[in-house]
Design a protein that fits this description.
The complex is a heterodimer of chains A (113) and B (115). Chain A has 113 residues and is mainly beta. Helix content of chain A is 0%, strand content 53%. Chain A contains no helices and 11 strands. Chain A starts with a strand and ends with a strand. In chain A, 39% of the residues are buried. By secondary structure, chain B is mostly beta strands. In chain B, the strands form 2 sheets. In chain B, strands 1, 3, 4, 8, 9 and 10 form a 6-stranded mixed sheet that branches. In chain B, strands 2-7-6-5 form a 4-stranded antiparallel sheet, with no helix packed on it. Chain B is globular.
Chain lengths: 113, 115
């Protein structure tokens, strides 16, 4: 058990809808990362927060947004969903932002129909 | 239509044999590398890491080798067990560090251990 908790585990929704994925980092970890894993793209970095502030951005679509709250949990919001957004979404956390292992949750499997 | 999956390299070994999983990285600026194991239905699990000032690091039954000259990373698993069956990813920090540190992942290798 990595200590990173993600909810929900599964989400099925229709195109055009909006969903929110939630992540609680390991106790003591200040940095939260979001990754997308799809069959044809592997693990793709989306965005990183450190102690409530956005620090790094990857190939995150404008329809997607995230935030990290004062209690350090994070939410990833996906809107105007398309079929191609179906994927596994992973949250990871680490103690600090620099060169340390990321610890991953078990992901949210999103299916857009 | 039928979805096209990621064509992962695969490695099939017999239980008890040693396994070697290879990874080529592209960014010469990377100075931190990690191996992860991902089992079906779970998130990537940290195995071992290595910094660029080292060329070898050992853990429990695992060894990571780093060859910066040819930008190659390998993971050696000793006495492979059925529980080692999973997809293995290498990851590097690329040009990132400090406040914008992130990891970039390789495509992964599927390891199958035959009893």
């Amino acid at each position: 058990d990595s200590g990173v908790t993600q909810t929900p585990k599964h989400l099925i929704t229709a195109t055009g809808q909006r969903v929110t994925l939630r992540c609680s980092p390991r106790s003591g970890d200040l940095s939260v990362y979001w990754y997308q894993q799809s069959l044809d793209q592997g693990l793709q970095f989306l965005i990183q927060y450190y102690n409530g502030e956005e620090r790094a951005k990857g190939n995150i679509l404008e329809r997607f947004s995230a935030q990290q709250f004062p209690d350090l949990h994070s939410e990833l919001n996906l809107s105007s969903l398309e079929l191609g957004d179906s994927a596994l979404y992973f949250c990871a956390s680490s103690v600090q932002w620099a060169v340390s292992p990321l610890h991953f949750g078990n992901g949210t499997r999103l299916t857009v129909t | 239509g039928e979805s096209v999956g990621l064509h992962l390299p695969t490695l099939s070994v017999q239980e008890g044999d040693n396994s070697i999983i290879n990874c080529a990285y592209s960014n010469s600026a990377s100075d931190y590398f990690i191996w992860y194991k991902q089992e079906s239905g779970k998130g990537p699990q940290f195995i071992i890491d290595i910094r660029s000032n080292m060329d070898k690091r050992q853990g429990q039954r695992v060894t990571v080798l780093l060859n910066k000259t040819v930008k190659h990373l390998s993971l050696q698993i000793a006495a492979t067990q059925p529980g080692d069956s999973a997809v293995y990813f290498c990851a590097e920090n690329g040009n990132s560090g400090g406040s914008n540190y992130k990891l970039t992942f390789g495509k992964g290798t599927l390891l199958t251990v035959n009893p």
